[in-house]
């Protein structure tokens, strides 16, 4: 009975300890706001259109445009950016088109993709082209010389490369969406940024009755739903605590299995 109680307690604690890992492996939920996403894109870093994770943004433009969006990403996330370009009618195109999806962090450093089709060439008769880029895990802290993804604003740039002169300016439409997988303690590091990378590169217009419209730089207004969580806490603390409990239970179980039932009644004391 004693061994059975020890094993039951151990299995229960293993189930509780595995719960955070199950939660971390699931994709993050989409925002609860059901409103439609932005229907336009910026043409530079300064005018990038802000989008939330899980929100689909659309935009219309031409094959010669650079389309920009921005989104927030926090420590412990692994963002995946997906873009779909609806190409101009095949009868108006003279050659294949190559499209490229680039992601930059708040310091405008181009981030490498772990996997995904970041560049694709669409045939002359193709109706659309799909691109994707899965970033590395966003870290809470990094060395100043490294280019690791850090919490803050990220920028998406979508553009066509190597176009024929006759294909410039053709109309098209694009869809962009960002989703993240919560990595949790697997990406935790011992350190934190003083502030997320949110440089003042967005612009806003200011008008009044007696003055013309002026454009000023402002900080990004987007942040994760529960705020920036970069800090010392991670679910590694939970795993460490439960590991200590399981080690103690393993010691108790081993002792219970090896100690035996005590002195036999037929053996006199003192022998």
How would you describe this structure to a colleague?
The chain is of the alpha+beta class. The chain has 2 helices and 12 strands. The chain has helices spanning 2-25, 236-258, and strands spanning 49-50, 56-62, 67-73, 77-86, 97-104, 113-115, 119-122, 128-135, 152-161, 171-182, 202-208, 211-218. Strands 1-3-9-5-7 form a 5-stranded mixed beta sheet, with no helix packed on it. Strands 2-10-4-8-6 form a 5-stranded antiparallel beta sheet. It starts with a helix and ends in a 13-residue tail after the last helix. The model is unreliable at 16-34 (pLDDT under 50).
From the structure above, extract its key features.
12 strands, alpha+beta, five-stranded mixed β-sheet, 271 residues
Topology at a glance:
Blueprint: H1 2-25, E1 49-50, E2 56-62, E3 67-73, E4 77-86, E5 97-104, E6 113-115, E7 119-122, E8 128-135, E9 152-161, E10 171-182, E11 202-208, E12 211-218, H2 236-258
Parallel strand pairs: 1-3
Antiparallel strand pairs: 2-10, 3-9, 4-8, 4-10, 5-7, 5-9, 6-8, 11-12
Helix pairs in contact: 1-2
**What is the terminal-to-terminal distance?**
30 Å
Number of beta strands: 12
Largest sheet: 5 strands, mixed
Question: Structural class of the secondary elements?
Answer: alpha+beta
Radius of gyration: 27 Å
With strands numbered from the N-terminus, the spatial order across the biggest sheet is 1-3-9-5-7
- Segments where pLDDT lies below 50 for 5+ residues? 16-34
Helix content: 10-25%
Overall geometry comes to elongated
Taken in chain order, the helices and strands follow as HEEEEEEEEEEEEH
Percent of residues in β-strands: 25-35%
Mean pLDDT: 78
Number of helices: 2
């Amino acid at each position: 009975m004693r061994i059975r109680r020890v094993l039951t307690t151990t299995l229960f604690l293993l189930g509780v300890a595995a719960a955070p890992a199950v939660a971390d492996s699931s994709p993050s939920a989409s925002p609860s706001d059901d409103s439609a996403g932005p229907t336009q894109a910026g043409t530079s870093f300064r005018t990038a259109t802000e989008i939330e994770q899980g929100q689909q943004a659309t935009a219309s433009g031409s094959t010669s445009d650079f389309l920009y969006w921005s989104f927030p990403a926090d420590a412990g996330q692994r963002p995946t950016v997906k873009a779909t370009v609806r190409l101009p009618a095949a009868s108006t195109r003279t050659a294949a088109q190559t499209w490229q999806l680039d992601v930059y962090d708040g310091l405008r450093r181009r981030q490498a993709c772990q996997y995904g089709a970041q560049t694709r060439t669409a045939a002359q008769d193709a109706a659309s082209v799909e691109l994707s880029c899965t970033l590395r895990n966003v870290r809470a802290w990094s060395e100043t010389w490294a280019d690791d993804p850090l919490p803050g604003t990220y920028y998406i740039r979508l553009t066509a490369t190597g176009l024929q002169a006759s294909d410039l300016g053709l109309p098209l439409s694009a869809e962009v969406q960002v989703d993240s997988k919560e990595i949790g303690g697997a990406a935790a590091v011992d350190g934190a940024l003083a502030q997320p990378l949110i440089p003042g590169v967005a612009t806003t217009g200011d008008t009044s009755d007696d003055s013309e419209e002026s454009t000023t730089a402002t900080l990004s207004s987007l942040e994760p739903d529960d705020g920036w969580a970069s800090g010392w806490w991670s679910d590694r603390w939970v795993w460490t605590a439960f590991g200590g409990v399981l080690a103690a239970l393993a010691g108790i179980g081993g002792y219970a299995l090896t100690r035996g039932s005590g002195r036999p009644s037929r053996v006199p004391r003192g022998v």
